[in-house]
């Protein structure tokens, strides 16, 4: 009964109540939408990084990871890849050769990371081939020898284009310096300009033919059917592949792992600050209501309404204002997130700056269900905490003194 009265009291001054509700709605919707943009950027960075750069899990020779020296290869890589491919949750496996070298054109030269791949297997693990526009060639098309696929940033740095020749130099496992001219077959462009500038992809068989030896396998990349299955699969691989180093994507790219860990905290901090600021507005409004209704509250207590019921009534009014605004805010934010998740937010004007940190200029906002559930609890807590001061103010009223106030 007391909460029905409290709900009706909320609408006694419709203008003031609507102002508070609108303030909570807009503040909360703005905060959630901002959080969704940040979350969307990070989710895209992680998906792109896993798909194009690191995969879910990688296997290496422990010695190779210390200085990336080419002689430290994985023993029996095809056998190991076969074992991994038969494990639960594993979607695809590929093997790679990694060599440190240099790329040179007639205009410039720079250090690079040479990745020797089997294109057919690589396509099952990496979506890099999809980052090559039709106007920029393809991903090892045809059977021509010494094809190379490079990043747009590297192409610009070397001042080369599609079908240009680029000289690649590297040291084979025997310590001999090898160099050869490669033809640019494709130019990819990912969200990470640093990756585009330092990595080139060639067929492993071309590397082996140039050196006359098997350059070995330095890396086995594993893609799972779901990112949530990484812990179980990683543990199983470590038990099976003793003597080899098994790492997940967060260990391979600690910067991405750190962003993932920090983003949730950042989102809750943003929403916490907004709710904290809104709480002051709600407290101020409810204190005004208590002050205006001092005589009324005094009469209610004089005719027998207990102070505890007055306390619950004021608490109820404050919570109703907060919850109504909170629900409207979450509904509005849900619409905004859904709308822009479909259409995206184009920040191409800032593509250079975003690319330097590996973020895509086209952002698709995203918010998890977990956040909405936690946010509901936060809104209820805000309402309860905001109600305490006005309700305590009402408790201090003395019926006799309150009735005399005009």
**Roughly what is the average pLDDT, rounded to an integer?**
83
How many DSSP helices?
A: 16
Order of strands in the sheet with the most strands?
Answer: 2-3-7-4-6-5
Please, how many domains? 2
Distance between the termini: 28 Å
Helix content: 55-70%
Oligomer type: single chain
Structural class: alpha+beta
Number of extended strands: 11
SSE series: HHEHHEEHEHEEHEHEHEHHHHEHEHH
Low-confidence stretches: none
- The shape is elongated
Walk me through what this model shows.
The chain is of the alpha+beta class. It folds into two domains: 2-49 and 257-404, no CATH class; 62-243, no CATH class. It is built from 16 helices and eleven strands. The chain has helices at 2-10, 14-54, 64-67, 77-85, 119-125, 152-158, 193-198, 204-211, 230-240, 249-252, 254-292, 294-302, 307-343, 351-356, 369-395, 399-404, and strands spanning 57-60, 90-104, 109-117, 147-151, 165-171, 177-188, 199-203, 219-224, 245-248, 345-346, 362-363. It has a six-stranded mixed beta barrel, surrounded by four helices. Helix 1 (2-10) packs across helix 13 (307-343), helix 2 crosses helix 13 and helix 11 (254-292) runs parallel beside helix 15 (369-395). It is elongated, with a radius of gyration of 31 Å. It starts with a helix and ends with a helix.
Short description:
By secondary structure, the chain is of the alpha+beta class. It has helices spanning 2-10, 14-54, 64-67, 77-85, 119-125, 152-158, 193-198, 204-211, 230-240, 249-252, 254-292, 294-302, 307-343, 351-356, 369-395, 399-404; strands at 57-60, 90-104, 109-117, 147-151, 165-171, 177-188, 199-203, 219-224, 245-248, 345-346, 362-363.
